[in-house]
Amino acid sequence: EDDDREGGKDHDEDDREGGKHRDEDDDEGHSSKHKGRNPFVLEKPVEIVSTEAGKIHVLPGRKDKAGVLGSNNIGVNFITMEPKALLLPQYIDAPCVLYVLKGKMRLGWVEDGLNQQDLEAGDIYVIPGGLVFYILNTDEAQRLRVFGMFDTSESLETGVFQSAFVGGGTNPLTILSGFDSDVLAASFKVSSEEVIEVLSNQDQGPIVYTSQARFQELVSRKSKSSRASWSWSWLNYISSFSSELFDNGGGKSSSPAKPFNLFKKKPDFENDNGRTIAVDGRQYAPLRNASVGVFAVSLKPAAILAPHWNPRAAEIALVTKGQGVFQISFPNGTSALNKSVKEGTIVFVPRYFPMSQIASREGALEFVGFSTSAAPNNPQFLCGASSVLKALDEETLSTAFAAPPEKLKDFLGWQKDAVILAG
Predict the structure, then answer these.
(1) Segment 158-185, tens digit of pLDDT
(2) Which of its termini does the chain have fewer beta carbons within 10 Å around, N or C?
(3) Range of the domain at 334
(4) Does residue 275 register a pLDDT over 70?
C-alpha cells in the first residue's frame, strides 16, 4: 500500500501470477485436448504497453487468441497508471465494461461533445465500442488499477480487441498517420509542414504523465457532459489530448450515465460465512448493451461457496484478496480443476460447469469478476438449504442414487445453511 501511494515499485507481475499448484492440480480429469495445460486457470496477462507512467496487460495474447477466452469472444485487460497519468484518447473495436479495482480516475469520452465521469474503487462503467475515450488518474498519490472485459464478437479478429489511438504521434502512432499528409493538410486547411510537425511530437507511449499545471486544470473542471462547438482547431485537439477542448462549448448540457458502485449495493446474499454481490442489467441498464454482468464474493476463513453452476453465463473471476482453492467439475463428473489460488489468480468457468470456491483457514478469500450475460444468472446449488436435490421428489431421488429415501433425507438435511457454508 505504501508503495502504491508513492507510485513506487510495480507489483503487477507478482500480484497476477497464479498460485502454486497443489499435487492434485496437474491436469486432473483433463481431456487430451487440453493435455499439458489447464484451460480454466488463465495464463499470465501479456504486457502490451509499458511506459514510465503505466502499463497495460491483456488476455488472450495474440498467440492464445484461439484459447478459451477467444473461443468465447472474450477479451480482458488490466490497466495500471501512476498518479497524474493519462491514457491517451483512443477508441476500441469492442464494447468494454470497466471495473475500478483501486484508486480514482476520470473517464472522458466523446458522444455529442465531451462526457466526463469520475470513478472510484468499486465502480462499474460501460464504454461502447468505437467511441473516443481517455482515462486520467485523478489521485496525486495512489496508483490506479482497472480491470476490463471486452466483447470481441464483432472485432476484426475473434478474441483480440484493438486500440486505435486518436491522439498520439510516433509512439503511439495516431490513426491520422494512416493518411497522406497532403490529404490531412487539405482536410484541416493547414500546411503539410504543420501536419508533419504535429504528428511527430508524441513519443512517450500510450500512457503519459501530465504536468502539474495541466493536471490541476484537468481535475479542477467539473465532471459533466456537454455538447461542444466543433469550431476549434484540430491542432489543439492533438496537443491537448482531447480533454481541454470543450471549455467554451455552446449548446445544451446533459448528465452522463452514473457509475454503479459494486460495494455500495446491498449484498444479494449474506450470512455468517460471507456474502455475494451481483449486478446485472436490471440494476445497471448499460450492462445490457455490453451483455455483461459483474459480481463480487467475500468468503470468511475456511468458508465454502457451495458447489453450483451458472445456467446462463460463463464467468471470469479475479482473486483480489487472500488464498484458497477453486474447484471445477466437468459435466461428466470428473475433476476439471482443483487449484490453489492467491491474489492475482484469474480463473475462467464455462457455462454449465459446476464450481466451488473455498477460503483458506488462515484468512478471508475475495474475488470479483464478469459474467457473459447481463440477465440474472440464477445459480443452481447442489448442496445446502437451497440444493436442487432437495427440490426433487423422494422417489426420483431414491431411484437416482439407489439409496433408501430415509437415508437421503437425512443426508440432505444436515446442512442448514445455504449458498455460503462453514468449512
Answers:
(1) 678 889 999 999 999 999 999 999 999 9
(2) N
(3) 264-422
(4) yes
pLDDT beyond 70 at 235: no
What SS3 state is found at 374?
Answer: coil
Same domain for 217 and 322, yes or no, is: no
How is residue 10 written as a grid cell? 510495480
Closest of 176, 80, 96 to residue 133, by C-alpha: 96
pLDDT band at 32 (very low <50, low <70, confident <90, very high): very low
Who wins on pLDDT, 37 or 333?
A: 333
* Residue at 319: amino acid letter: V
* Structural domains of the chain, count: 2
The string of pLDDT tens digits covering residues 351-365 is 999 999 999 999 999
Question: Are 294 and 156 within one domain?
Answer: no
Q: 326-354 burial by CB neighbour count: b if 16+ within 10 A, else e? A: bbbbeeeeeebbbbbbbbbbbbbbbbebb
273 and 130 within one domain: no
Q: What was the pLDDT predicted at 63? A: 62
Please report where in the chains the cell 486505435 appears, as a residue: 164
Spatial CB neighbours of 320, under 8 Å, sequence gap ≥ 6: 101, 343, 366, 367, 368
- Enumerate the H helices of 246-358 as residue ranges: 286-290
Please answer whether residues 368 and 296 qualify as being in contact, where contact means their C-beta atoms are separated by less than 8 angstroms: yes
| 65 three-class SS | coil
231 and 328 share one domain: no
